[in-house]
Amino acid sequence: MTDYGHELAFGTFLTPQNQDPQTPVRLAQVSEAAGLDLVTFQDHPYQPGFLDTWTLLSWVAAQTERVTLSGNVLNLPLRPPAVLARAAASLDLLSGGRFALGIGAGAFWDAIESMGGTRLTPTESVTALEEAIEIIRGIWDARERRILRVDGAHHRVAGAKRGPAPAHDIPIWLGAYKPRMLRLVARAADGWLPSLAYLKDGDLRRGNTIIDEAAAEAGRDPAQVRRLLNISGAVAETRQGFLHGPVDQWVAELTALALEDGIGTFVLGTDDPRLIQVYGEEIAPAVRDAVARERATTGTVPAAARRGAAAIALRRDGIDYDAVPASLTADAVEPGDRAYESVRHNYLRAGSPGLVLRPRTVDQVVEGLAYARSQDVPLGVRSGGHGISGRSTNDGGIVLDLGAFDTVQVVDPATRRVRLGAGATWGAVAETLVPHGWAISSGDYGGVGVGGLATTGGVGLLGRTFGLTIDNVVAAQVVTADGRVLHASRDDNPDLFWGLRGAGGNLGVVTWVEIEAMELGDVVFSQMTLDARDTAGLLERWGAAVEKAPRELTSFLILSPPRRNQDAVAQLMTVYAGADTEAAVHELERLAEAGPLLGHQGYVLPYSGVVQPADRHHTGGGDPAVRSGLVTHLDGDVSRAFERVARSGLSYFLQIRATGGAAHDLAPDATAYPHRHQNFLLTAMGAAQPALNTAWDAEVAPYTDGLYLSFDTDTRPERLADAFGPNLDRLRQVKRAYDPDNVFRANFPIQPADG
């Protein structure tokens, strides 16, 4: 028996005939309604009686909601690989990750030549396919910053720009029969897709043997190659041949193929809607049940949990990989997995965790947290992965990645209450709320995750109008260190609710928050560039103008220090939270008087145009060094101190964010975050923490009154006192109640209060 433990999938293999163009579309919809997982189409671009397969795939993607779509198989000689890669990534993005790439080396060469293709020998066609796979994967690897060069014998790209990255890790399935092609499947592909009608007795087992041996030589577990099979047949009252008979016969024969020949995906070639319904509603569920019963008896290891020798060699000490909960193995990522590069880093910090768990349900979060606690390695919890401190990744530890918790749901239209998954991004939130005429104060960049910002502060471009993000949080769901799933609000676990708003990462895994959005139509968004040669004077004048401005105005200042042949400049990002352009222009003119105006652009747009949706393909950048401090006024002393740090050469990015306004409406002890009288948040980012600490402590720190932990990487214990002030003692009591063992200690750990 050869059972690779793949989760079974069932699909259809449809004819893209164009006599009635809507027929294949309707059959795809029938397939989805029948509960099938996959819809595939033949690809014969030289066949005038067929629709173009790629166009049909795109159309069907828009007419379906759940099924995965693929060519079966796409004709590579007539589809240039670089263009095919971009088309595949685009369709995957548009369909929400529902595309698989089935490709073949080519056949019917007379017809291919008639369409302008180049005839290749069997050996040449395999070489061309291998070159194409390298190009396709290279185009999809948008995280790699170098341009793509592949100088193949048949396919070449000379400096192609990479991207877009697809929505998910698109599997590549190859239609293959001969040994050389089978070895290519083992080395470079994710699946083997032959047709049963083209196979002789024993070919499945012989093909599996070749793939298994070649995969082992390449350091892969053979189970990393899914075995798919195109089948055909008919349901009849009596047995008339293989897959020609009653439903029970189909179930028995497909079950045998799964358990004895390792087939994980069965693709039925038919254009009969009734057969599709029987296949999806009766045959597929019965085969799944039969295979599951047998696997439970034999203890078959799921394919997702298996790794090749090369991957196993990359595993880290202190992690029991065999003990990963079964519910998490399919989406878990280890070093050596192709998805590893997309999950190892954060926005600024480079990481190399030993295991990334990606739960999809709160129960899986509970399981993942319990497992992580049992391992002797660091634990990071990640929502969007954008935090400057970057402690949601690590080296050699476990990361609990909440990216799948990305829903944005209106809970109560009357109170504008919105439930946000911790893994959602603020750009997606803003875009979702625009049709309602609502907005939530949420930073200045759409790629930031909800979970981090909504539990630490949220000093954003609507902050003076609506307060901090945490000020509008009304409830949260939290998984605590001991595995409890708690609801936190003013009425339920109020001490936890208090602590979450400022120190959430220290108290548990927040899976969602509920926030009362604010009514907001269009805003005025301004981008100014000012001459900052008189840096201190500019800061002082800008600060005074902001303090005099109405709450509708919030402004951020980015200071670029003087460099070789370039004077210092300041860039202002300002939002006037209202569409009254006359009032907005008046306030913006006052800001422009802070220094000589070099350029200005202004827009009236929805808030989603300011905090735009952004992807989460993070590449890290080393070990960031950042310091922050809060001040009440940008008076002369503060401005000159900030100017000295800017001119020291020790900081390459400096920013001042206006806060205050509505953020001052709460008492200092209303939330764990206590800073309710300061008007400005100062931040400097440098290359080395010790040098930046020295400059900051000498120049700026004497004037600051508190700090914002999300913008600080100085982990000396006194920073906690700066961050939480008089609230720290109470916070330690809350920590003792909910995390007495200090499980959540990766980022500015708060020590639980003594007994």
TrEMBL record:
GO molecular function ontology, one term from the record: oxidoreductase activity, acting on paired donors, with incorporation or reduction of molecular oxygen
Cofactor(s) this protein requires: FAD
Keyword terms: FAD, Flavoprotein, Oxidoreductase
Domain FAD-binding PCMH-type: 349-520
A Pfam family matched in the record: FAD_binding_4
Entry similarity comment: Belongs to the oxygen-dependent FAD-linked oxidoreductase family.
Protein known as: FAD-binding PCMH-type domain-containing protein
Species: Microbispora bryophytorum
High-level lineage: Bacteria, Bacillati, Actinomycetota, Actinomycetes, Streptosporangiales
